[in-house]
Amino acid sequence: MPLSPIRLPIPDKRDIYLVFSTSVFVVFTWTIIVFILQLNNLLVLLELVDILFTLVYAFSIDLVESLAVTLLLVITSMMFPRKYLKDNFRSIGPLLILLVAGWAMAFAFRTSKYNPDPQRESEMLAWAGIFFSSVVGTIIMAPRYETIKKIGSGFAERTLLFVNLYVLIGIASAALVIIRNLGIG
User: Fold this and answer.
1) Which of 14, 139, 143, 147 has the largest CB neighbor count within 10 A?
2) What are the Cα distances from residue 171, in Å, to 51, 60, 63, 98, 160?
């Protein structure tokens, strides 16, 4: 009796690409916004070439970060029951990316120089619990509501406009980082 190949419970390739496009859009756009906000400080401290290479380094890391986020979501979808994440990957994956990015932005602001009141450890622990609960709640509750699934997949489809440009910028940035660090250029 021939052995059948092992089939991993991974989402459809199109769904993975939609989640990747959402990740690329969120990460690259966030980097551009933070760069614009810090540009005034960078102009005072660095020369123009160094400022551009700061952005190049950031874009090359963004591409790796987007791939890592997508891979983490694919692995997570394999751990949850099929009905929660794998069957709804194209709609829940983008929602999770937006949720985690929103929490990361809130945390970055909370611990930044713009906020004079730093958090205490107990407050940080409470926020971590709320973050974990919101992520798990999204995974469990979102498949039950068609409107929420439409919002997630609609957002993912709209990010497809940017993914090719951002990935091209990320690959070009990674190539420039490699060339500069090897001393070729």
Assistant:
1) 139
2) 19, 7, 8, 23, 17
pTM of the model: 0.82
- Determine the Cα–Cα distance for residues 148 and 137; give it in Å rounded to an integer: 13
pLDDT > 90? residue 66 = yes
The CA distance from 173 to 137, in Å, is 37
77 to 12, 16, 24, 84, 95: CA distances (angstroms):
11, 11, 19, 8, 14
Tokens of 67: 């791939």
* pLDDT above 80: residue 69: yes
Mean pLDDT of 36-60: 92
Token pair 């250029």 is found at 185
Binned at pLDDT 50, 70 and 90, residue 50 comes out as very high
Phi, then psi, of 87 in degrees rounded to 5:
-70, -20
Q: b/e for 37-63, b at 16 or more Cβ within 10 A?
A: eeeeeeeeeeeeeebebebbbbbbbbb
How confident is residue 108, by pLDDT bands cut at 50, 70 and 90? confident
Under a CB-based contact definition with an 8 Å cutoff, are residues 157 and 100 in contact?
no
